[in-house]
Design goal:
alpha+beta, 6-stranded mixed β-sheet, 4-stranded antiparallel β-sheet, 7 helices, 17 strands, 31% strand
Length: 271
């Protein structure tokens, strides 16, 4: 009798542990939400840090609403009104990849096309960016240099960029300083990269136009912390790749070394 009771107790314990494991595997944590998404059963909105079951019915208040969610075993998923049923019904150990995108590389810029491709789209600026540029394509010296042009409060701002030999340097703080004062919460939607050659005539060549993105670092820190917490058993490269893909999904394409430096300084995570 005692032996039977013991076997039953062990069976119940195993069953409970299995149920807990299944539930844990199906729980996703919200990294970020754009728009408004509601859990139908409770009426509560998804927000950063919200944990919910994969089988929950979610109501998207607009077609543009989306959420980045993550599970330590099944990975990160970009949830939208178009794929919510696929997400809910997926029984696979791994959900479809949410579009892994590598960061902007640091390979040598050889011509104007390389430079245009490097800056295209939303350009995320964390702190200081260094870009190696072929001197044959764009020599940098006292009278030959790059500068950035943007509008701020109906005023045209031209910022000459620093360089070191063949390396162009973009410093966020210097870029956003006007008359010795830092621009708070910059709302700059467009920047133009220009190349100046001074001589008898000043020849200014437009290179490209791009959208600079200056994240709210306190908010981004909270979001990336969730990714790191959910990926604590993963390798450095896996974490960086996931963080890079996430930043690309919600902000823009980051520069590789710029991102790695920010992650190292903010979370003490390094290779």
């Amino acid at each position: 009798m005692r032996k039977t009771q013991a076997l039953i107790a062990i069976y119940v314990l195993i069953l409970s542990f299995s149920s807990y494991s299944i539930l844990a595997q199906d729980k996703f944590t919200v990294i970020k939400v754009s728009g408004n998404i509601v859990i139908q059963s409770s009426g509560s909105e998804l927000g950063i840090g919200t944990a919910f079951g994969q089988n929950e019915d979610l109501l998207f208040k607009s077609n543009e609403s989306r959420a980045a969610v993550i599970n330590p075993k099944r990975g990160r998923y970009l949830l939208t009104s178009n794929n919510v049923l696929e997400f809910r019904n997926s029984k696979s150990n791994f959900l479809p990849a949410s579009g892994k995108v590598s960061a902007r590389g640091v390979s040598n810029i050889l011509n104007i096309n390389d430079l245009q491709k490097y800056f295209e789209g939303n350009y995320v600026i964390f702190d200081k960016i260094k870009i190696k540029i072929s001197p044959a394509a764009f020599p940098m010296e006292e009278k030959k240099y790059f500068y950035l042009r943007y509008n701020y409060k109906s005023e045209t701002i031209n910022k000459k960029l620093k360089y070191n030999a063949d390396t162009l340097i973009i410093n966020k703080d210097e870029l956003l300083t006007i008359d010795g004062k830092q621009i708070p919460n910059p709302e700059i939607t467009e920047m133009k990269l220009m190349y100046m050659e001074e001589g008898e005539k000043y020849v200014s060549t437009p290179i490209c136009v791009f959208t600079p993105i200056f994240p709210d670092f306190e908010q981004l820190k909270k979001e990336v912390q969730i990714i790191i917490d959910q990926m604590k058993d993963k390798s450095y490269d896996e974490k960086i790749n996931e963080i890079s893909a996430y930043v690309n999904d919600f902000y823009g394409k980051p520069e590789e070394n710029n991102l790695k430096t920010w992650v190292k300084d903010t979370f003490n995570i390094k290779q």
